Amino acid sequence: MSSPVLEAPVLEAQNLSKFFGQVISLNDVSLTASAGQVTCVLGDNGAGKSTLIKILAGFHQPDKGMLLIDGQEHPFRSPHDARKAGIAVVYQDLAMQPLMPVWRNFFLGEEPRRRIGPFRFLDRAKARRICREEMAKMGINVRSVDQPVGNLSGGERQSIATARAVYFGARLIILDEPTSALGVRQSGVVLKYVLRARDEGLAVIFITHNPAHAIMVGDHFVLLNRGKCIGDYAAGTVSEEELIHQMAGGAELAKLRTELLVGGATDRQQSDKIGSAPG
Question: Which of 15, 120, 140, 197 yields a CA-CA distance of 20 to 30 A from 65?
């Protein structure tokens, strides 16, 4: 009996390194993103998350390592190459125009057109219909697609950007800190759409520095610290507390705690001596 053929990951990054002069921004980092799974990349500021995103999106080329799409080596020379391969990045700023209506932000220059004789006109009715239908597939319901996108909450805008990426053929969505500027309720909205995208069969890379959010949606966890991978775990093999401990730098945190305790004790001893000295 033949063994089943395993489907190759949508994207596989192998031993990526990136140098800027003498600065090592990324050092020997690997990860995979498979269809129907959420890969969470966690790290504090300066961990290398932004550099990793830019390599996966085609803005930077790695100095070492390689990218594979569907199991085949596929270097990206530009963001256009990444988009052609089905990779979409939803950045923190979302690239939206707050005064424009929802449906215009959904297309942003890629609106459907209709032809009348030799002329081509913007097909507003079709654009509105597609916008409503595609957002409904992601479970997004807005009062009107004609309202300015600036009237929507941060979570709703994140979800529209995700639905837009899906409609334009993304197979892998990279979400860059989508909950960093949101409250608890709006973060919950975004996390639901992350799971909806996963359930639609997309591969998702969720970049975050929030272990609590990662543990709720992640199927896989990659931890970065100072450009290096310090942990790689499947869901169920690591707890939120362990993620926090590693992100904070377990050994460094223990050393800092000891220094603070010793320093505090020394300060108290000196204070006691001053207080007990004769006047």
Answer: 197
Helix segments in the chain, DSSP class H? 49-56, 79-84, 102-107, 124-137, 154-167, 184-199, 211-217, 240-247, 250-276
The model's pLDDT over 132-142, given as tens digits with 9 standing for 90+, comes to 888 887 777 78
Residue 111 is assigned to a structural domain of this protein: yes
- How many domains in the chain? 2
Q: Would 278 be classed as within a structural domain?
A: no
Asked whether residue 1 is assigned to any structural domain, the reply reads no
Does residue 5 lie within any of the structural domains?
Answer: no
What whole-number distance in Å separates Cα of residue 274 and Cα of residue 244?
40
Q: How long is the chain?
A: 279
The predicted model scores a pTM of 0.81
CB 102 within 8 A of CB 108: no
> What does the buried/exposed string (b/e) look like for 191-212 if buried means 16 or more CB atoms within 10 Å of the residue's CB?
bbbbebbbeeebbbbbbbbbbe
Give the C-alpha separation, 176 to 225, whole Å: 17
Residue 3 has a pLDDT of 44
Give the HSE-up count for residue 96: Cα atoms under 13 Å, Cβ half-sphere.
29
Q: Are residues 46 and 141 both part of a single domain?
A: yes
Q: Which domain holds residue 208?
A: 29-238
Same domain, 88 and 179: yes
